[in-house]
Specification:
Length: 374
């Protein structure tokens, strides 16, 4: 099968960000299955002789739809972000845990863009500029959102990476045939080199240390556990960085490593904190951690880990309460039997459900169904 993958995040030889990593991993797995895979950044690069066009990372989906219609090519779109929300989060900023919002309006979009906490790490002048632009941006964001929903309904199939994301797409008017297939995780996360980066048992926070990722909540929870240190895979800065430094002091470790060394970071940690407060489409961090057998503590009810992991079986899940979240972390340090059980179960679950070869076969079935209908 000749497959053209369209992804604006594709950079030859570079793997960075969840979308970019997924595109690379998908392509590698499909090639290993014997398919010819060509990745392009722009829809206009699609060859009319391709068997299937696979659009990833929603940007430019309207252009891809036009090209595929022109050449009568089957088109499958993978959605791995909140394209049905103007700020891409489906939460508003009324509390430190965020307030769920599953529908968008002009007033709602305007308020979210004006008071968006995702801008809190920007400089004062840039933040003011962003607020001024919100007057113009709100209608543009809404227009783009509606255009993308319309484009998704014109695809031959839509795949999203979680049950929660499917629900949000349906609520926003995507009535196409929606399949749920998680993003793939590379085999490198199954291999342990034996090297440990830390001499003590530490908690790990991977990804952007931002408000929607719950970096402040992870830090607050760790601050309630005597002596526990929190490792960040990226530097912490801005207001949220100042807050984290204030409550944790010298219990912060910054350990930035290239993507190829991420398994080493997971294997060196005792527990991974997945504290997102937004409607996480998937969140590779928890899946990668499970693949390494490092237990995850996550919040429940807003997608991500809670869509796939089961409390006390493959993870520990908490309501949106920092005290309860801290208690769940403590359980892993105090109950060795529970720790080993979750570590073992999570690793086996991840191998069976998130391995790239498993995911590639699920996509093959979708492609075959689409080609049969064509």
């Amino acid at each position: 099968m000749r497959v053209y993958i369209v992804s604006h995040l594709h950079k030859p030889g570079i793997k960075e960000g969840g979308g970019g990593v997924s595109t690379y991993t998908f392509a590698k797995a499909f090639r290993e299955q014997g398919h010819e895979v060509i990745i392009v950044s722009e829809p206009e690069e699609i060859d009319k002789r391709s068997d299937v066009v696979w659009h990833q990372n929603i940007k430019n989906i309207e252009r891809t739809v036009r090209i595929c219609k022109k050449f009568s090519l089957p088109l499958i779109a993978t959605v791995n972000s909140n394209v049905t929300c103007c700020t891409g989060a489906h939460i508003t900023n009324e509390s430190k845990y965020g307030t769920p919002c599953t529908s968008c309006s002009f007033i709602g979009a305007f308020n979210c863009l004006l008071f968006n906490k995702r801008n809190q790490n920007r400089s004062g002048s840039l933040k003011l500029q962003m607020r001024k632009l919100s007057f113009v941006a709100a209608p543009l964001y809404l227009r783009n959102m509606k255009m993308r929903i319309r484009a998704l309904n014109e695809c031959d199939a839509v795949v999203c990476c979680s049950p929660t994301l499917k629900e949000l797409l349906e609520l926003s008017g995507v009535h196409n045939n929606i399949y749920v297939i998680p993003s793939p995780i590379e085999k490198i996360f199954l291999s342990y080199s034996g090297e440990r980066l830390f001499d003590e048992r530490v908690a790990l926070f991977c990804g952007s240390p931002s408000w929607i990722k719950g970096a402040h909540l992870a830090a607050e929870a760790v601050s309630k556990i005597d002596g526990l240190k929190l490792v960040f895979s990226r530097n912490i800065k801005g207001k949220i960085g100042e807050y984290i430094k204030r409550i944790l002091g010298d219990r912060i470790i910054i350990c930035e490593v290239p993507y190829k060394d991420m398994p080493k970071l997971y294997y060196s940690a005792y527990v991974t904190l997945f504290a997102s407060i937004w409607f996480e489409p998937l969140g590779r961090v928890w899946a990668e951690s499970c693949m390494c057998g490092t237990p995850v503590v996550a919040f429940k009810g807003r997608g991500g880990a809670s869509d796939y992991l089961k409390h006390e079986e493959t993870a520990l899940l908490s309501d949106y309460d920092v005290d309860e979240y801290a208690e769940q972390i403590k359980r892993l340090f105090e109950d060795e039997a529970l720790y080993k059980k979750i570590s073992r179960n999570a690793r086996e679950y991840a191998k069976k459900n998130f391995s790239a070869d498993v995911i590639a076969k699920k996509y093959e079935k979708v492609f075959e169904e689409v080609l049969e209908r064509k």
